[in-house]
């Protein structure tokens, strides 16, 4: 392989160093000191979100058999860089709008939740993007996600906790748009596959995500925090049970398929994210969990055989049906439940429905447009796109002592 692809010493370390130096300078300007008041976010809740983002997504994307080092290592790198960038972006918006700052723990938690969008998008280009491209994508996507949230909260008057739950929708379609600009790998590539150990590690990440998802959905809820926790748990439980049922029914030999389980057991938590704080009966959350598993498993079948070949988009980890489709189900459920709840009591029902529909459309449109633009830029020659033959390989970026000369 040519040295321009193999050696990133002259690019990646200096980019990271420049970003960190810029972050330190901006933190000096925007965050003068820590607040003296009690945070509205408890430290255990922050820990749950932090564990979910780092451990959950860190292991969730380790299913490729030759890309385990990069999946965990690069994800951790873009998380720690992205959280700082997210805090600065939010702090800059607060500074421009002259809003009071001070709750640092809440800002860190909000930044960690925002990074979910980047980690979801990373799944679409996993193994195809080099570290330079991943870092730049993370910085750009965090900024665009905050811009999208600002539009929803300022002009469409969407509550802040609900606008944060657009993170799945934005991350999925931003990632698909970026991936559309990358070359497709060979369908016969043996590296684009999993092994027993890689699938087991990926399932470990899924379990971390499953356990901490109630904290994720309830962290910024002002009213109905307990309902958000209960509904998320019931929805995830129903989606997990349905995933096992459908996996056995849809495979040729009647056995469970790890890909189905890994993707579908989280669907309930995603689908119920918009309405977890307002659903008053657990059976509603359970129905959403059941439906999410159905559309994930059936959606994976349709995407791999119909959608992806038609649009020429390669989605490495299946984020479209794992995150995008459940998020769309949750958006539809929010509108339906809003209509049912306010059918006879609100004279402005049509306006409220239009506002929520506009927020969903704006989020998807912003994700697709900015993601496609980012994908075009990331594939320019200065960012050294790796050739298709070298996709899904750790050895491009990591040292393996047992492969060194003399061992």
From TrEMBL:
Keyword Membrane in record: yes
One example GO MF annotation: ammonium channel activity
InterPro entries: Ammonium/urea_transptr (IPR029020), NH4_transpt_AmtB-like_dom (IPR024041), RhesusRHD (IPR002229)
Keywords recorded for this protein, A-Z: Membrane, Transmembrane, Transmembrane helix
GO biological process, one term: ammonium homeostasis
Topology in the lipid bilayer: Multi-pass membrane protein
Transmembrane segments: 12-31, 43-64, 76-96, 108-127, 134-151, 194-213, 233-249, 283-302, 323-343, 349-380
GO CC, alphabetical: plasma membrane
Domain Ammonium transporter AmtB-like intervals: 39-389
Compartments where found: Membrane
Gene3D superfamilies reported for this sequence: Ammonium transporter AmtB like domains (1.10.3430.10)
Similarity field: Belongs to the ammonium transporter (TC 2.A.49) family. Rh subfamily.
Name the UniProt record assigns to this protein: RHL protein
Organism annotation: Zapornia atra (Henderson crake)
